[in-house]
Amino acid sequence: MNVITTLNDKRREKQWNFERKMLRHIDLKKMERSIKEWVRPLMPFQFQAYPFLLDQSIDMTIDAFLLGTEYGRFGIYGESTIDSKKRCDTELTMLSHSLCDTLSGWTGESPSESLLTAIDMLLGTWWEKGYLEARKAYKLRLQ
Question: What share of the chain is helix, strand, coil (3-state, %, to 5)?
Fold first, then answer.
């Protein structure tokens, strides 16, 4: 007797496999350097006192990378990077606001505009890297 699987289960499994393949392209050292470059100058003492904030930042940056890989397939069909980014603007904004709230919660102050801008730029660059990696994988038919 065969096992009955639904279409949603197959889609989820295919997406997980694709995300695993894309996660192999992440260099955590580069990601850590970019977090220290963008966010650490705004909160130098918090990253020293609470080293787990770096892990939170890496986690959200990985989510932004995977979000970019999810929308990378639209680049194959001729859609520009800017148009693809507009498609997921709400999700990317939600990620950046969530990280900003998490980091500013440890300072005891309300989220500053400079911190939010730095986080937007950080997540935007890693979204683009994920987008380009997925586009390259789809071109090479490695999905």
Answer: 75, 0, 25
What mean pLDDT do residues 66-90 have?
90
Rounded to the nearest 5°, which phi and psi values hold at 136? -65, -40
Which tokens go with 34?
Answer: 């970019």
Q: State the Cα–Cα distance between residues 18 and 78, nearest whole angstrom.
A: 21
pTM surpassing 0.85?
yes
Smallest CA-to-CA distance from 98 within 113, 119, 118 is with 119
Is the alpha carbon torsion for 131, 134, 138, 143 positive or negative? negative
- In angstroms, the CA 97 to CA 115 distance is 10
> Hey, is 124 helix, strand or coil?
helix
The distance between the two most distant Cα atoms of the chain, rounded to a whole number of Å, is: 61
Can you tell me the distance from the alpha carbon of 27 to that of 140, in angstroms, rounded to the nearest whole number?
21
- Number of helices (H), then strands (E), in the chain: 8, 0
